User: Fold these one by one.
Assistant:
Number 1:
Amino acid sequence: MSKSPTDVVITGIGIVSCHGVGRQAHEELLKGNEAPAPVIDRDRFAPYPVHPMPQIDWSTQIPRRGDQRQMENWQRLGVFTAGLALDDAGLKENPEACATMDMIVAAGGGERDISVDTLILNEAATRNDREVLLNEKLTTELRPTLFLAQLSNLLAGNISIVHKVTGSSKTFMGEESAGISAVSTAYERIRSGQSTHALVGGAYNAERPDMHILYEGMQCLAQGDWQPLWSRDHVGGGIITGSASAFLVLESRAHAEARNATIYAVVTAVEGNRGSRDEGALETRIEDMAKHAELSDGSDLLIMSGASGRHELLNREKATIAKNWPDAALRGYGGLTGHTMEAQFPIGIALAALALKSAAILPQFDQNHEAIMPEAASSALVTAVGFVHGEGLAVLKAD
Amino acid sequence: MTKRAYRDHLGRPLIAVTGMGIVTSLGQGKEDNWRALTGGTSGIHAITRFPTDALATRISGTVDFMNAPIISGELSFAFADAATREAMAQASIDGDFNGPLFVAAPPVECEWSQRFELADEAGLGANEENAYDGILATLRKKPHESFTRSALFGTVAERLADTYGTRGLPVTLSTACASGATAIQLGVDAIRQGRTDRALTVATDGSVNAESLIRFSLLSALSTQNDQPEKASKPFTKDRDGFVIAEGGAALVLESLESAIGRGARVLGILKGYGEKADHFHRTRSSPDGGPAIATIQAALSDAGLDETGISYINAHGTSTPENDKMEYQSLSTVFGDHLPNIPVSSNKSMIGHTLTAAGAVEAIFSLLTIATGTVPPTINYENPDPAIEMDVVPNVKRDHNVTSVLSNSFGFGGQNACLVMTAEPA
């Protein structure tokens, strides 16, 4: 691949999942000899298992306790991980770079106050004037600052406050699609010369029943014990969610090289689409996106699938991959991190970039469905198939 | 026109607006809205959607005339749908839009009415430890697909994409009060990058319910002058005491000027430039020195290839909060200096309230209508001027004024700022 100054390169990776904090913990995961043992909390949200957040010393990235208090875990996790990415890129202590940096955050909504919701629903069981009850309780029980912790755009707002990233600030929503659009928009801005460097990513807190009800409205959640991603056949819908976050620093090659930044990988395509999934339409869209991305099969291709685990989608994605890229090495990273909604696509890109840079021979995450990798990959395809809507992919090449 | 006339000062494609649609508390459609807005009519009223007993704020600019279920996601879609239909018709685009879609939509969660229904279905008692456990048990027994769809943030965009045949993955975004302007900016970028000849940009907000009102109220952001609702929003006055929460929707069809002229479309105005800059000062307050707002305005002027002499009207953010109006004035006076007294600056929010996620796009349309008609909408309720804000706010009555270029400001909670510059079609 010929190098160009407008290539979009990854120069900073911040990542946190149940397997630990930071780039190194995840590199080890990818370079291990066998599948990492699942990190699962089966009890707290039973019957639903979740991949819990690891131990995090927040103050290493969010030094002011006042800032920490203004956020709930979803925002804290994102702000923390964004700090890791800036650090990793060597830009944390570069106020000029942060003040001109674009930022696009893929966000959902923040944690609801479960005890206030329960209090209201308990009272509602014995009252008919529920709207009046709502006014009474919300006025007296809601913490004013909780609203700010819930607003989608305040994850980005807190990153500006804590890390002083202020070139621009955008928040994309819409479940997995938010992550796809966030990466794609930053990619297109840099590629076209509109921007030189951007922070992009998302965070997800899985340890909250207010999110579980969204998945369970469509009976999507797996129940009981953890199983490897492609092997899930227990009761339930197949999705195990995980608390995790990834942020990436994307730069133009010219900008990265001028400051001697480490380049993890080159992003050569980011595609997204949506629509009906009936009668093979999902498969066709994935194939069309890959065609547009000019992706060819090979034993040096790593496919990092962001499959959510939802039963009816899992095998369709897997079959499409097997049909189009039979020689590539497939790895479903959601089996390790859990499904992470808005953060899913950025996490896949972070892991793929780490795998390329470290020339990792990835262990099989699911022995029954993933082949042994014959060699380190020179390129990677990252997929995302939204649990309800939206699909996307990115192509990364080793530099 | 020569090829060159289709390019801006930086050689980028000029971007035309060829279709606009709007819904606010003043009515549905450009005609009704413009008549009311230039007539100085307020759309603010006492809230009837839900009981307001014991609430500090009991007024809003809700849109109560649409035929849609009173659920945020449904209302937001209804406004977006009506605005988009109007914009597509004006742009004479039949059938599929066939370009990308950018939607500024409120982050709406499931509604209390839905929680109550689920709790009833679950047969929850009065002493549950965690009500969500019971709700989840019910959902395990029987799926509630429409519940999930209504609470997913991407649903409004998904429905618009299906209805209007847009291309690719739609972007759903939120930059708080700047969202509408950000949606337009993303559309501009897509055309400038050469990814498309046209983009559909939509902004909508139908999220006024008890919880959202109370949340803003707890932040002391809202006006509590309930007695005369139509007088509560009074930007730039001494007795302004907060914004009035409101609803609305707006849609703009953006096209490269070359493509618009090529297909014989009527050009309603040019989206000449945008600026953006984030603030790191505080979660709800802007930097008191106006630094980020100043940078945003300057970036927009520069992107549009204009200087401080090039703007003939400013469509202010003008929320009627004590802080914003002061900060906005300071920023404008810093950027425009001696020219500011000669530039009319009015706030549409004095009449329609703060349509939040929709505001940037709603006000962009009003800015373009100002250019098209030569009528500057007033700032109403300007009875007790704030002496610290010396601007020509077009007090209370509209004015005839030849406007060829407009700056429209949007400054959001969470430090997200975006400004747009719109101009008349080049001669």
Note: The mean pLDDT of chain A is 97.
Number 2:
Amino acid sequence: MDFLTLILLLLPIGFCAYFLGSRRAVAVAGGKDGIRNLHSLPSHHGALTAIGAVLPALFLACVWQMALPPVLTGILKDGLPAEMRQLPANQFSLIVNDIKNVVAGNMTPGADQTMILEAAERYIDLHNTAEMLLTGLVLLVVAASFLFVHSRIRVDLRARNVVERVLKALLVLCSAFAIFTTIGIVLSVLFEAIRFFKIVPLHEFLFGLDWSPQMAIRADQTGSSGAFGAVPVFAGTMLIALIAMVVAIPIGLMSAIYLSEYASERLRTTAKPLLEILAGIPTVVYGFFAALTVAPLIRDLGLALNLSVSSESALAAGLVMGIMIIPFVSSLSEDVLHAVPQSLRDGSLALGATQFETVKNVVVPAALPGIVGGILLAVSRAIGETMIVVMAAGLSARLTANPFEAVTTVTVQIVTLLVGDQEFDSPKTLAAFALGLVLFFFTLFLNFVALRVVQKYREQYE
Amino acid sequence: MNSDNQTTACCASPGLSLSERIGRDLPRRYRNEQRFQRLGLAAIIIALSFLVFLFGSIISSGYSAFRQTYVQLTVTFDKEAFTSENLAAADYAGMVKGSLRTMFPAVKGRNDLKNLYKIVSPSASFALLEMVTRNTKLIGTTQTVWVLADDDVDMLIKGQLSGEGDESNRRLKDNQLAWIDQLKEQGKIETRFNTTFFTSGDSREPEQAGIWGAVMGSFYSLLITLLLSFPIGVMAAIYLEEFAPDNVWTNIIEVNINNLAAVPSIIFGLLGLAIFINFFGMPRSTPVVGGLVLTLMTLPVIIIASRASLKSVPPSIREAALGVGASQMQTVVHHVLPLALPGMLTGTIIGMARALGDTAPLLMIGMIAFIVDIPGGFTDPATALPVQIFLWADSPERAFTEKTSAAIIVLLAFLIFMNASAVILRKKFEIKW
């Protein structure tokens, strides 16, 4: 039986254990009328029996499954002839890979590879034995642990407390997933990035002005020097994010002020969800819109004004990204504007200020920290945005502040370096992880500051 | 500064009383007020007009893809062509070509014939094969069949490709245009509802390309995401809201969740590539890995929504349950959770809608491959709907632009449906305490 079927088999076993356990509890209590004598309800006894029967077996199966591949590979290696084992490590691992491919059915060995075929057969043999062994062991453990728990069911067994403790442990485990994810992210980008920085020094990456990650395949090739100075990439990211914010901040902030200070209830309830549609549209749609509609529009406009505009100009990508960001700025700002106490407005209006003066001199200054926090979150969003720039911004890493030229961004580079063939020993692939590391920590920093600012501000008025 | 100005103003015109001075300023201040209000309204109108422009441009370029051009052929299934047992071995392309030749007997010469054959999609021969496999009695008869026209012909019929200008720059040559006109006169060319688009997988030929493969890929990925992220998210929210003590550990978890909600999605793709594919050796380009990556991305959204939902259940419910002797776990499971569930479901649907539209992490884990077959399971190579849009958007053929827009319309329809059901769910089950 293979692993998945075995795990799925534990499900009906658990159900059976549940019913047997609860029946046993009723029996121990002396029939239906005796249930009140039990410490815990029959369902708790049932749940305890099910947990007792399934959990140890599940644990065993998982440990077994994790330990199996290295053990099997080890046995396999010992079985290979001596001359093969004396090969250098990388050649040897190629052979092991071949064997595994034959096992998976991805490859048919050639006539001269009888050795590999034999090894593959041995591997399949071992694997089958291991599976049978596991099935037997699991069933044994299930039976033993079930009998153990079943026999322990008494009137005064505190089944509920045990079941609840197990449940709570499960809850804790689930909530720890957030930490696992963060650790996973940090480890995955950090390790590859460290490997990258062993090849390309950190200062060269952070301060170098030349980015051309294509490595030369032959020594005499020109034009693909493999330079990893990321400053043009960072500058391009900043330029596009800046254009996006120039679009999004005025429009988003003004809509937020209008919606929270002036708009009638009806306008608010219709305009707000409509604005939020902008946030719900997938970014790939924005990217298509930018590449197909906005970029040609801007190019034609530039031609009419005698400007040379690249067809992948930073302006097109930034503009569309700005449209995408508007709802973030507006809904976050509206929240903070809403949190400004009415008494501040009333005080200002009572002194004879017009509503505009109240907004300008009282409401916005009071909400400023929250607004800034919201804008920081929006900036982090703009920097991490991928699809719009992949589809509408260029690939050429140019150090320029001209919005009509094509620039590239961190996310574009990550995508182009990692889509397609990957070799995890070339700096080209590893560079993507280094960029990812920078992106992760930079957005983390922005988010952290923004969340702190917003939180502090909320506490002030609550 | 401001007060200084006012004092000088007052001394410069000592004859004016306070109310007169205020009255003098009032028109200007009211004008400012008006201008500011108009500015605010303009901002909203600009934002909404972007929305209209976006939808307008996509719908106007995509609606035509729901119809497809077909050409009528009269095909003779000659008995002599089916010599071997294997039906697929017969020369169906030859039959298509023969039928075109009988329709236009005047066409001679290699180049002209080649152009003639190009009117019909290369998929026509597969359509014939399918017909014969379904009904072997057709062999030896002559049938009229409608087959797909080539994408250039389709574009011409839909008016998206012009027949004007220099012949050498055109996709369709003069003689082809004449034949198409002739076919039109005979009623042998027409547009029909494009079922291919909804039932087939990707293809290099625009007229044969469909979204069903991508839809299934998205479906399998999202199924995994839902099955994992809903239970885990809800349980995490219950722990943090109902049980967690106020200590450092809880704080760390909360900071982590809030930060993960704002981490760029491409970073999750890097995690999937480095951990799931490289470390655990899971198969590339499969919905399993896609689903796992999307799960990690959706979890914070679901946790945050579920916590808000739990928070809105009034403490009196908990106190009442605890008061009659329920344990804390029983209170939560029997009383608080059922009341909070609608809110949790709403959050989950919104999280799933976000996962459906996300593209960047799927690019990282290789769900960007060109896959013709429709995935039949969690470990088949697959692509996803937004990735399909990205792939088609990159294709140079004119006809793919239309297909891309149509796929976007389908994607947006799914998203609107999901969000609308979330809103309805919230309206229906919302309890005002």
Note: Residues 212-429 of chain B form a domain with the MetI-like fold fold (CATH 1.10.3720.10).
